Amino acid sequence: MASSSSKSYSWLDGKFIGSSEAAVPILTHSLQYASSIFEGIRAYKAERGTAIFRLQDHMRRFLRSAKIYDLDLGRSDKELCDAAAQLVRKNGLESCYIRPFAFYNDHQIGLSPLGKKVSTFIAAVPFGAYFGSGKEKGISCKVSSWKRINSSILPPEAKASGNYTNSIIANLEAKKSGADEAIMLSGNGHVAEGSGENIFIVKDGILLTPSREADILPGITRDSILKLAQNSGLETVERQIHREELYSADEVFFTGTASEVTPVTSVDFKKVGPGKPGPITRMLEEKYSAVVSGTDHEFEGWLTYV
Predict the structure, then answer these.
(1) 7 flagged as catalytic
(2) Of the residues 186, 230, 275, 293, which has the maximum number of CB atoms within 10 A of its CB?
(3) Which residues, 6 or more positions from 134, have their beta carbon under 8 angstroms from its beta carbon?
């Protein structure tokens, strides 16, 4: 799909605008207090054209996050889905990352958001492998000293900007230690997730992933991998996972919109298995790639062609 114009567009409150025209005051409430919600969605160059992966599921989660944080967007999932698809088409993108974002567009100082204007913005930008070459060869992780937020502090099932300050500080700690990414534990010490990814381990041919009791964000890619694994005949288990199980696992990998399926080859500077991506990780990565590229027609219902 070739672009008819070099100009980049975004969508703001129901209108397409030039991306360079999208601006808010520095004192906007959501910039000061992180009182915003967002989504991450990918579009891929697929067999029959550009396809957005699980678009409606992402937009429904976007609206659930808004409801949890009491942001009234005044928009339906259909309107948001249509806007995202039109935006990808208008920007002439074959593959990209789509970022819906809702925020308090008000620049009066004061903590309470009541009565403040809510704006909804969607961007679509080119995007490659989140972990670069690590997506193929595997990445290193460090278990963070910072615990994952829980529902008595902030709602972890909402994809809210403020929640991610928890992730940022863990990610910084990991990178400063020489690792590529952090693994966060729940308040009770069980494995939760990465700083922006869900996590899976493979042990004796069984695929395990932390359950919701570990205060995870229930990822849409996570759900996809569970369904693909079950469809392939793999036994899957959602349960509490102890930290030491990361060290004794045969395979570990991350999933997420940005990270897709990324092998983890060391945790706390201990090799995972033989220290290279394992066969089940590779198999699921290949199945996921086949789905998003439109060559696996069994799951074609997950694709929205633009």
Answers:
(1) no
(2) 186
(3) 180, 262
CA distance 174 to 182: 5
Give the tens place of pLDDT for each residue, 44-69: 999 999 999 999 999 999 999 999 99
Torsion over CA: 41, 43, 262, 121 (sign): negative
Q: Are residues 49 and 158 both part of a single domain?
A: no
Express each pLDDT in 272-285 by its tens digit.
999 999 999 999 99
Report how far residue 192's alpha carbon sits from residue 223's, in angstroms, rounded to the nearest whole number.
Answer: 15
CA distance 12 to 67: 20
- pTM of the full predicted structure? 0.95
- Domain encompassing residue 148: 134-292
Amino acid 103 reads F
Does some domain include residue 299? no
Within this chain, do residues 247 and 204 fall inside the same structural domain, yes or no? yes
| 120 and 260 belong to one structural domain | no
**How many structural domains are present in the chain?**
2
Contact 301, 54 (CB under 8 A): no
Q: Are 176 and 141 in a shared domain?
A: yes
Pairing assessment for the beta strands 139-143 and 260-267 based on DSSP bridges: parallel
Task: Report yes or no: 100 and 62 within 8 Å, Cβ to Cβ.
Answer: yes
Using the structure block, give the residue that is written with the tokens 């509490």.
240
Six-digit token string for 239 = 């349960």
Residues 112, 152 within the same domain: no
The CATH number of residue 235's host domain is 3.20.10.10
Considering the candidates 90, 116, 135, 159, report the single residue annotated as catalytic. 159
